[in-house]
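To whoever is covering the structure queue this week,

Two jobs came back overnight. Logging them here so there's a record in the thread.

Job A:
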Amino acid sequence: MKRTLFIGMLGLSALMSGYAQQGEGVRKGRIVREPLVHDPVMAKEGDTYYLYSTGHNVSSFSSKDLSEWTIRHGVFSAPPQWAVDSIKGYEGHTWAPDIIYYKGNYHLFYSCSTFGKNTSAIGHAYRKTLNPDSDEPWTDTGAVIVSHSHDNFNAIDPNIVIDEEGNPWMTFGSFWGGIQLVRLTEDLTSTLKPEKLYTICTRQFEGASDVPSRSVNSVEAPFIFKHGGYYYLFVSYDFCCRGLKSDYKVVVGRSTRVTGPYVDKDGRELTRGGGSLVVDSNDEFVAIGHSAAYHFDGKDYFMAHGYSLSEDGVSKLFFREMTWDEEGWPLVSAE
């Protein structure tokens, strides 16, 4: 999730208001039908779904039916000290998590950064269960990857994908040099050395194209979903975090290889200005974006956040069943 200096006070106020209400809910343990979230991701353990999102120490929810959500405490009892020490200005408001079950553990990835800077880090923690009533703590292993002001990438917005050979990869990135992909070690705690970054989506490029290169590389929030022999790369274009003035939207490209190239319906590469629209604003939400996709119980689902038109731009969960057209492209209803 991009945190830029352009962020409007109206949008920031609405977003923080939502988090404040959510914080009250954590203390009360209340049940909600429309959770206040930003950058949502999900996993299922047994008969329970668990949702994680941006928030203080990572916000969390649980549900038995994908309709009523119980607000849980933050994942961490205190901000990871390594991140507080190394990321100036980070105090526990943790962005854009990802969650995956892999080799006997649930692995949580999270973003530590501050507005408008790429001095950032992606952290990692693991636990055998997602059950919030378990006494088992999350074991934090520290930074997976770090970016500094001299780097042309931003180490936030992680998403983990396991390729057909069983190798773990992490895609990430926001603005700067665009969306990156890097191979992880088998324990998921660090990047494989020597580190090699693949740029798999950027809106800034050289050479002729029927789509003009953008002066600002407004792309972030990657998520890779495997379906029918393809890897589908969902990314968010344009700007979030301005409340009702946001213009986020989700586009997609696909590839037979996890490293790309990813192309859209018209054959344009996502590194050359491509991207087929999946979802945009509608009559209920402005700027639907920062998406994730899952296969649960025989169905595919698409989730994101959107700024509620009826509630002054509060950020809420957008959750829909995802189907596929005859050519194998994802379809997500705005209704």
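Job B:
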Amino acid sequence: MPHARSFTIVAQHAESQPAKKCKSVDPTKEWKRRSPFWDHYSFSTVKGKDGKLVRYATCIHCHVAKYKADPRYGTSNAKKHLDQCDAYQAYLAANPLPTPEFDQKVFCRMFADAIMYHSYPLSIVEHVKLREMLTYLNSKVRHITRNTILKYCLLEHKRLKSMLHEILADVNSRICFTCDCWSACTSRGFLTLTAHFIDNNWNLKSRILNFRYFPPPHRGVDIYLFVVGLIKEWNLEGKTFSMTCDNAGSMDVMVARLKSDLQTFGTLPLGGRFFHVRCCAHILNLIVQSGMKVIDASVLKVRETVNYIAGSDNRLVLFEKCVVDSKSILLVSC
């Protein structure tokens, strides 16, 4: 029986290994009692037969059970005693644990918060296994559809938007805007307007005022009408300080017309001299792209080489072998 022989060898090997010594703990020092079972015990430190101090835990209900209270020993004995302690069971009967009432609306609001915070799809509320788990946690749960959770998400968006309106109305400082118009991987255009301001506690805050689908054409006049409508919607005409955007020609047209409108109301400081701020990141991007054009031929060769090697498993194995051989040659030469 080979299995029996192997078991004997493993057992002998285990017996030959020295037992690991647990790190001693000073019983006079406090230790973090994370388990809720320790709440039903009182602690005392006594001197043992060997003269060393030992910490004991005594049940506060029956005052009979006494166990060594040490992080090395765990909470198994304390838990088993409470399950069998008549005094503790009588205490539970007289003082039942409070069970919070289930509120379906609170559940839906919390589910909507989780969806918006973690960017979950709305269809997650209709997943079968998730519904089974929620039913197991609370049988009073009434499952909802994606249309219902969408309503709760829109209500939360409306509440947060109203809260942001109040915050911006109370701001005493000027507000700087960042406008960005870009296309997603689906070729759909979007426009984002972000407000940057210092609150009354002198903390720098940034809030996205709009993240919306922006259909073509992306002309300067269209962007201007879109942005000026947002500024008026948030009642920020008299608090505007600057507008940061990229160096596209359409953005120059938008900023020029917006600056002209705000100057008419006389709300821009210093006559709008510092109103238009060009995005440094976009300028740096243009510089890098111009520099990359110089090495376009080399980059193209590297791409073709990678595509050729990755096109076959055999080529990939040969390439890895060449890499190993080249490393060994370099080591020998060094």
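Note for Job B: Strands lie at 41-47, 53-59, 66-68, 175-183, 189-198, 204-213, 240-245, 276-278.

Please reply-all if you pick these up so we don't duplicate work.
Q.
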